[in-house]
Amino acid sequence: MTDPGPEIAQRMLALRAHFAHHPVYEQLEGQFERLLSNRRVEVDKGEVREARAIALIGASGSGKSTAIDRLLTKTSGLILPQEGQDHCDVVSLMVPSPATLKSVGRSILEALGRPLRRERTTDAIWELVRGFLKERKVLFLHLDEAQDIARHQTPKEMQSVINTLKSLMQSRSWPVGLILSGMPGLKDLLNYDPQLARRVFPLELPRLSPLGDIGEVRAVVGFYSAEVGIPWEPEATAADVAARLIHAADREFGLLIEMTIDGLEEALHSGASSLSVEHFAAAFSRRSGCIAGLNPFIADEYERIDVRKLLGREGEE
Ligand SMILES: Nc1ncnc2c1ncn2[C@@H]1O[C@H](COP(=O)(O)OP(=O)(O)OP(=O)(O)O)[C@@H](O)[C@H]1O
Ligand SMILES: [Mg+2]
Predict the structure, then answer these.
(1) Which residues partner with 23 through β-bridges?
(2) Which alpha helices (DSSP H) does the chain contain, by range?
(3) Which residue has a Cα nearest atom 29 of ligand 1?
Protein backbone atom coordinates (compact mmCIF):
# COMPACT_ATOMS: atom_id res chain seq x y z
CA MET A 1 0.00 0.00 0.00
CA THR A 2 1.30 3.48 -0.80
CA ASP A 3 1.82 5.91 2.05
CA PRO A 4 -1.18 8.34 2.09
CA GLY A 5 0.85 10.94 4.07
CA PRO A 6 2.07 13.11 1.16
CA GLU A 7 -1.36 13.17 -0.45
CA ILE A 8 -3.02 14.19 2.84
CA ALA A 9 -0.34 16.85 3.35
CA GLN A 10 -1.14 18.30 -0.07
CA ARG A 11 -4.84 18.45 0.66
CA MET A 12 -4.12 20.16 3.98
CA LEU A 13 -1.92 22.70 2.24
CA ALA A 14 -4.77 23.55 -0.13
CA LEU A 15 -7.22 23.86 2.79
CA ARG A 16 -4.86 26.13 4.73
CA ALA A 17 -4.52 28.41 1.71
CA HIS A 18 -8.26 29.06 1.68
CA PHE A 19 -9.32 32.43 3.11
CA ALA A 20 -12.68 32.48 4.89
CA HIS A 21 -14.32 35.87 4.42
CA HIS A 22 -15.75 37.68 7.43
CA PRO A 23 -17.41 41.08 7.96
CA VAL A 24 -14.36 42.77 9.53
CA TYR A 25 -12.31 41.80 6.49
CA GLU A 26 -14.86 43.48 4.22
CA GLN A 27 -14.60 46.65 6.36
CA LEU A 28 -10.81 46.52 6.28
CA GLU A 29 -10.81 46.15 2.52
CA GLY A 30 -13.33 48.97 2.05
CA GLN A 31 -11.43 51.34 4.32
CA PHE A 32 -8.07 50.54 2.79
CA GLU A 33 -9.32 50.98 -0.77
CA ARG A 34 -10.77 54.35 0.11
CA LEU A 35 -7.57 55.60 1.73
CA LEU A 36 -5.49 54.20 -1.12
CA SER A 37 -7.49 55.89 -3.85
CA ASN A 38 -7.50 59.18 -1.94
CA ARG A 39 -3.72 59.05 -1.60
CA ARG A 40 -3.26 58.13 -5.25
CA VAL A 41 -5.35 61.06 -6.45
CA GLU A 42 -3.49 63.45 -4.11
CA VAL A 43 -0.14 62.22 -5.41
CA ASP A 44 -1.36 62.60 -9.04
CA LYS A 45 -2.53 66.14 -8.41
CA GLY A 46 0.59 67.00 -6.42
CA GLU A 47 -1.47 67.82 -3.31
CA VAL A 48 -0.13 67.15 0.14
CA ARG A 49 -2.72 66.12 2.68
CA GLU A 50 -2.24 64.34 5.98
CA ALA A 51 -2.38 60.58 5.71
CA ARG A 52 -4.53 58.39 7.95
CA ALA A 53 -4.11 55.07 9.78
CA ILE A 54 -6.07 51.85 10.05
CA ALA A 55 -5.71 49.74 13.19
CA LEU A 56 -6.72 46.09 13.19
CA ILE A 57 -7.00 44.73 16.72
CA GLY A 58 -7.62 41.18 17.91
CA ALA A 59 -6.36 38.50 20.28
CA SER A 60 -3.76 35.92 19.32
CA GLY A 61 -5.25 33.62 16.68
CA SER A 62 -8.05 35.97 15.70
CA GLY A 63 -6.64 36.30 12.19
CA LYS A 64 -4.96 39.73 12.05
CA SER A 65 -1.84 38.79 10.11
CA THR A 66 -3.83 36.58 7.73
CA ALA A 67 -6.30 39.40 6.99
CA ILE A 68 -3.59 41.99 6.29
CA ASP A 69 -1.61 39.53 4.20
CA ARG A 70 -4.70 38.82 2.14
CA LEU A 71 -5.44 42.55 1.81
CA LEU A 72 -1.97 43.38 0.57
CA THR A 73 -1.71 40.48 -1.85
CA LYS A 74 -5.26 40.76 -3.27
CA THR A 75 -5.66 44.52 -3.69
CA SER A 76 -5.33 44.96 -7.40
CA GLY A 77 -2.57 47.19 -8.68
CA LEU A 78 -0.81 47.40 -5.32
CA ILE A 79 2.97 47.35 -5.74
CA LEU A 80 4.78 45.40 -3.02
CA PRO A 81 8.55 45.56 -2.46
CA GLN A 82 10.42 43.58 -5.09
CA GLU A 83 14.07 43.10 -5.87
CA GLY A 84 15.22 45.61 -8.44
CA GLN A 85 12.08 47.78 -8.26
CA ASP A 86 12.48 51.38 -7.07
CA HIS A 87 8.93 52.14 -6.19
CA CYS A 88 6.53 50.30 -3.87
CA ASP A 89 3.11 51.23 -2.50
CA VAL A 90 3.27 49.33 0.79
CA VAL A 91 6.03 48.18 3.10
CA SER A 92 5.02 45.56 5.65
CA LEU A 93 7.03 44.36 8.63
CA MET A 94 6.78 42.89 12.07
CA VAL A 95 7.79 45.16 14.94
CA PRO A 96 11.07 43.81 16.34
CA SER A 97 11.42 42.70 19.91
CA PRO A 98 12.32 44.49 22.08
CA ALA A 99 10.64 47.37 20.30
CA THR A 100 12.37 50.71 20.72
CA LEU A 101 12.13 53.69 18.44
CA LYS A 102 15.60 52.83 17.23
CA SER A 103 14.96 49.12 16.57
CA VAL A 104 11.67 49.85 14.78
CA GLY A 105 13.37 52.45 12.58
CA ARG A 106 16.15 50.03 11.78
CA SER A 107 13.64 47.30 10.80
CA ILE A 108 11.78 49.71 8.54
CA LEU A 109 15.03 50.51 6.77
CA GLU A 110 15.64 46.78 6.27
CA ALA A 111 12.12 46.32 4.90
CA LEU A 112 12.80 49.20 2.51
CA GLY A 113 15.87 47.33 1.28
CA ARG A 114 18.23 49.89 2.86
CA PRO A 115 19.72 48.18 5.93
CA LEU A 116 21.98 50.33 8.09
CA ARG A 117 25.66 49.77 7.50
CA ARG A 118 26.85 51.50 10.64
CA GLU A 119 25.54 52.62 14.00
CA ARG A 120 23.44 55.80 13.95
CA THR A 121 21.42 57.81 16.45
CA THR A 122 17.67 57.33 16.66
CA ASP A 123 17.06 60.74 15.07
CA ALA A 124 19.40 59.97 12.20
CA ILE A 125 17.72 56.58 11.61
CA TRP A 126 14.28 58.18 11.39
CA GLU A 127 15.61 60.87 9.07
CA LEU A 128 16.73 58.05 6.77
CA VAL A 129 13.35 56.28 7.17
CA ARG A 130 11.48 59.41 6.07
CA GLY A 131 13.89 59.95 3.18
CA PHE A 132 13.61 56.39 1.86
CA LEU A 133 9.83 56.25 2.28
CA LYS A 134 9.69 59.30 0.02
CA GLU A 135 12.29 58.02 -2.42
CA ARG A 136 10.45 54.70 -2.86
CA LYS A 137 7.08 56.52 -2.99
CA VAL A 138 5.67 54.36 -0.19
CA LEU A 139 1.99 55.16 0.44
CA PHE A 140 1.43 52.85 3.44
CA LEU A 141 3.57 51.35 6.15
CA HIS A 142 2.23 48.21 7.85
CA LEU A 143 3.50 47.34 11.34
CA ASP A 144 2.39 43.95 12.65
CA GLU A 145 2.57 43.19 16.40
CA ALA A 146 2.25 46.95 16.86
CA GLN A 147 1.20 46.50 20.52
CA ASP A 148 4.86 45.80 21.27
CA ILE A 149 5.71 49.44 20.58
CA ALA A 150 3.62 50.39 23.60
CA ARG A 151 5.13 47.81 25.96
CA HIS A 152 7.64 48.67 28.69
CA GLN A 153 7.83 52.29 27.57
CA THR A 154 8.17 55.20 29.96
CA PRO A 155 5.61 57.97 29.34
CA LYS A 156 8.35 59.99 27.65
CA GLU A 157 9.30 57.13 25.33
CA MET A 158 5.64 56.43 24.57
CA GLN A 159 5.13 60.06 23.58
CA SER A 160 8.15 60.05 21.30
CA VAL A 161 6.91 56.86 19.57
CA ILE A 162 3.53 58.51 19.06
CA ASN A 163 5.09 61.73 17.81
CA THR A 164 7.17 59.76 15.34
CA LEU A 165 4.12 57.87 14.00
CA LYS A 166 2.15 61.12 13.73
CA SER A 167 5.02 62.84 11.96
CA LEU A 168 5.01 60.15 9.26
CA MET A 169 1.32 60.81 8.55
CA GLN A 170 1.68 64.60 8.80
CA SER A 171 4.84 65.01 6.75
CA ARG A 172 4.67 68.07 4.49
CA SER A 173 6.92 66.50 1.91
CA TRP A 174 5.69 62.85 1.77
CA PRO A 175 2.88 61.74 4.11
CA VAL A 176 2.68 57.99 4.72
CA GLY A 177 -0.46 56.15 5.86
CA LEU A 178 -0.19 53.52 8.58
CA ILE A 179 -1.70 50.08 9.00
CA LEU A 180 -1.19 48.90 12.57
CA SER A 181 -2.17 45.37 13.51
CA GLY A 182 -1.83 43.98 16.98
CA MET A 183 -3.21 42.58 20.19
CA PRO A 184 -5.62 44.56 22.40
CA GLY A 185 -2.67 46.36 24.07
CA LEU A 186 -2.49 48.41 20.86
CA LYS A 187 -5.57 50.28 22.05
CA ASP A 188 -3.46 51.78 24.88
CA LEU A 189 -1.08 53.24 22.33
CA LEU A 190 -3.88 54.67 20.19
CA ASN A 191 -5.80 56.10 23.13
CA TYR A 192 -2.71 57.62 24.72
CA ASP A 193 -2.83 60.62 22.45
CA PRO A 194 -6.04 62.19 21.10
CA GLN A 195 -4.21 63.58 18.08
CA LEU A 196 -3.18 60.07 17.10
CA ALA A 197 -6.59 58.58 17.95
CA ARG A 198 -8.47 60.96 15.69
CA ARG A 199 -6.35 59.97 12.71
CA VAL A 200 -7.00 56.23 13.12
CA PHE A 201 -9.84 54.07 11.80
CA PRO A 202 -10.06 51.25 14.36
CA LEU A 203 -11.31 47.76 13.50
CA GLU A 204 -11.58 44.91 15.97
CA LEU A 205 -11.84 41.20 15.20
CA PRO A 206 -14.63 40.13 17.55
CA ARG A 207 -14.51 36.97 19.62
CA LEU A 208 -17.00 34.26 18.67
CA SER A 209 -20.10 33.97 20.79
CA PRO A 210 -20.61 30.52 22.37
CA LEU A 211 -24.31 30.65 21.57
CA GLY A 212 -24.81 33.21 18.84
CA ASP A 213 -22.20 31.86 16.44
CA ILE A 214 -23.07 28.14 16.50
CA GLY A 215 -24.82 28.39 13.12
CA GLU A 216 -21.90 30.17 11.49
CA VAL A 217 -19.39 27.71 12.95
CA ARG A 218 -21.43 24.78 11.66
CA ALA A 219 -21.35 26.35 8.21
CA VAL A 220 -17.56 26.87 8.39
CA VAL A 221 -16.88 23.27 9.47
CA GLY A 222 -19.36 22.06 6.85
CA PHE A 223 -17.52 24.00 4.16
CA TYR A 224 -14.08 22.60 5.08
CA SER A 225 -15.31 19.04 5.44
CA ALA A 226 -17.06 19.24 2.06
CA GLU A 227 -13.80 20.51 0.54
CA VAL A 228 -12.03 17.28 1.53
CA GLY A 229 -15.07 15.14 0.78
CA ILE A 230 -15.59 13.93 4.36
CA PRO A 231 -19.08 14.66 5.69
CA TRP A 232 -19.51 16.01 9.18
CA GLU A 233 -21.63 13.60 11.17
CA PRO A 234 -23.78 12.83 13.01
CA GLU A 235 -26.09 15.78 12.57
CA ALA A 236 -27.65 15.35 16.04
CA THR A 237 -24.39 16.26 17.83
CA ALA A 238 -23.22 19.00 15.45
CA ALA A 239 -24.40 21.89 17.66
CA ASP A 240 -22.61 20.42 20.70
CA VAL A 241 -19.40 19.88 18.74
CA ALA A 242 -19.61 23.43 17.36
CA ALA A 243 -19.99 24.82 20.92
CA ARG A 244 -17.00 22.76 22.10
CA LEU A 245 -15.00 23.91 19.09
CA ILE A 246 -15.74 27.57 19.88
CA HIS A 247 -14.48 27.04 23.42
CA ALA A 248 -11.46 24.99 22.29
CA ALA A 249 -10.49 27.85 19.95
CA ASP A 250 -10.80 30.32 22.86
CA ARG A 251 -13.53 31.99 20.78
CA GLU A 252 -11.06 33.13 18.11
CA PHE A 253 -12.09 32.73 14.49
CA GLY A 254 -8.65 31.93 13.06
CA LEU A 255 -7.91 29.34 15.72
CA LEU A 256 -11.28 27.73 15.07
CA ILE A 257 -10.41 27.28 11.41
CA GLU A 258 -6.98 25.94 12.32
CA MET A 259 -8.60 23.36 14.65
CA THR A 260 -11.18 22.40 12.05
CA ILE A 261 -8.42 21.66 9.57
CA ASP A 262 -6.45 19.75 12.23
CA GLY A 263 -9.60 17.66 12.94
CA LEU A 264 -9.97 16.86 9.25
CA GLU A 265 -6.32 15.89 9.08
CA GLU A 266 -6.88 13.41 11.93
CA ALA A 267 -9.94 12.01 10.14
CA LEU A 268 -8.01 11.52 6.89
CA HIS A 269 -5.09 9.84 8.67
CA SER A 270 -7.40 7.47 10.49
CA GLY A 271 -9.13 6.56 7.22
CA ALA A 272 -12.54 7.63 8.61
CA SER A 273 -15.47 8.18 6.27
CA SER A 274 -16.90 11.04 8.35
CA LEU A 275 -15.62 13.79 10.63
CA SER A 276 -16.55 13.26 14.26
CA VAL A 277 -15.81 14.67 17.69
CA GLU A 278 -13.08 12.04 18.28
CA HIS A 279 -11.03 13.58 15.49
CA PHE A 280 -11.28 17.03 17.05
CA ALA A 281 -10.37 15.52 20.43
CA ALA A 282 -7.30 13.78 19.00
CA ALA A 283 -6.19 16.96 17.22
CA PHE A 284 -6.64 18.99 20.41
CA SER A 285 -4.63 16.61 22.55
CA ARG A 286 -1.87 16.55 19.92
CA ARG A 287 -1.79 20.36 19.95
CA SER A 288 -1.96 20.93 23.70
CA GLY A 289 -0.51 17.75 25.20
CA CYS A 290 -3.28 17.81 27.80
CA ILE A 291 -4.88 14.84 29.54
CA ALA A 292 -8.40 13.69 28.49
CA GLY A 293 -10.05 15.40 31.49
CA LEU A 294 -8.80 18.76 30.21
CA ASN A 295 -9.77 18.16 26.60
CA PRO A 296 -12.81 20.33 25.71
CA PHE A 297 -13.98 17.71 23.19
CA ILE A 298 -14.09 15.02 25.90
CA ALA A 299 -14.72 16.68 29.30
CA ASP A 300 -18.29 17.17 30.51
CA GLU A 301 -17.82 20.63 32.00
CA TYR A 302 -15.58 21.85 29.23
CA GLU A 303 -16.43 25.55 29.69
CA ARG A 304 -14.11 25.69 32.74
CA ILE A 305 -11.04 24.50 30.84
CA ASP A 306 -8.25 26.97 30.12
CA VAL A 307 -7.66 25.95 26.51
CA ARG A 308 -4.56 28.13 26.01
CA LYS A 309 -2.60 26.10 28.55
CA LEU A 310 -0.18 23.50 27.20
CA LEU A 311 0.42 20.14 28.88
CA GLY A 312 -2.44 20.65 31.34
CA ARG A 313 -2.69 18.11 34.16
CA GLU A 314 -5.51 17.45 36.61
CA GLY A 315 -5.38 19.59 39.77
CA GLU A 316 -3.25 22.30 38.16
CA GLU A 317 -5.81 25.06 37.76
N1 LIG B 1 -10.01 34.38 7.38
C2 LIG B 1 -9.32 33.24 7.57
N3 LIG B 1 -9.54 32.17 6.78
C4 LIG B 1 -8.84 31.03 6.99
N5 LIG B 1 -7.94 30.85 7.97
C6 LIG B 1 -7.70 31.88 8.79
C7 LIG B 1 -8.37 33.13 8.64
N8 LIG B 1 -7.94 33.97 9.60
C9 LIG B 1 -7.02 33.28 10.31
N10 LIG B 1 -6.88 32.03 9.83
C11 LIG B 1 -5.96 31.01 10.36
O12 LIG B 1 -5.93 31.18 11.76
C13 LIG B 1 -4.61 31.06 12.29
C14 LIG B 1 -4.25 32.30 13.08
O15 LIG B 1 -4.29 33.44 12.22
P16 LIG B 1 -3.25 34.64 12.31
O17 LIG B 1 -1.86 34.13 12.41
O18 LIG B 1 -3.58 35.59 11.21
O19 LIG B 1 -3.69 35.27 13.71
P20 LIG B 1 -3.12 36.55 14.45
O21 LIG B 1 -4.30 37.32 14.92
O22 LIG B 1 -2.14 37.27 13.59
O23 LIG B 1 -2.41 35.90 15.73
P24 LIG B 1 -1.06 36.35 16.52
O25 LIG B 1 -1.47 37.56 17.34
O26 LIG B 1 -0.76 35.17 17.41
O27 LIG B 1 -0.01 36.67 15.52
C28 LIG B 1 -3.72 30.80 11.08
O29 LIG B 1 -3.50 29.41 10.99
C30 LIG B 1 -4.54 31.25 9.90
O31 LIG B 1 -4.25 30.52 8.75
MG1 LIG C 1 -0.10 37.63 13.75
Answers:
(1) none
(2) 5-17, 23-45, 64-74, 101-111, 122-135, 155-170, 186-191, 194-197, 214-227, 238-248, 253-269, 277-288
(3) 258
Give the distance (Å) from ligand 1 centre to CA of residue 256. 9
Distance between CA atoms of residues 153 and 147, nearest Å: 11
Distance CA 312, CA 299 (A): 13
Taking only the tens place, the pLDDT of each residue in 118-165 is 999 999 999 999 999 999 999 999 999 999 998 878 889 889 999 999
Span 243-302, pLDDT tens digits: 999 999 999 999 999 999 999 999 999 999 999 999 999 999 999 999 999 999 999 999
pTM of the model as a whole: 0.95
In sequence order, what are the beta bridge partners of 275? Answer: 232
- Which of 140, 135, 146 is closest to 113 using CA atoms? 135
Q: Output the ligand 1 site: residues, CB below 6 A.
A: 16, 19-20, 22, 58, 60-66, 183, 254, 257-258
**CB neighbour list of residue 10: distance below 8 Å, 6 or more residues apart:** none
DSSP letter for each residue of 81-150:
P-TT-S--SEEEEEPPSS--HHHHHHHHHHHTT---SS---HHHHHHHHHHHHHHTT--EEEEETGGGGG
**107 with 96: CB under 8 angstroms?**
yes
Q: Atom of ligand 1 at shortest distance to CA of 21?
A: 1
Ligand 2 center to 182 CA (angstroms): 7
In whole angstroms, what is the distance from residue 7 CA to residue 77 CA?
A: 35
Domains defined for the chain, CATH in brackets: 23-204 (3.40.50.300), 210-304 (1.10.8.60)
- Which sign, positive or negative, has the C-alpha torsion 109, 61, 284, 220? negative
Distance 283 CA to ligand 1 centre (A): 18
Measured distance CA(312)–CA(317) in Å, rounded: 8
Ligand at shortest distance from the CA of 59: 1
User: What is the CA(22)–ligand 1 centre distance, in A?
Assistant: 12
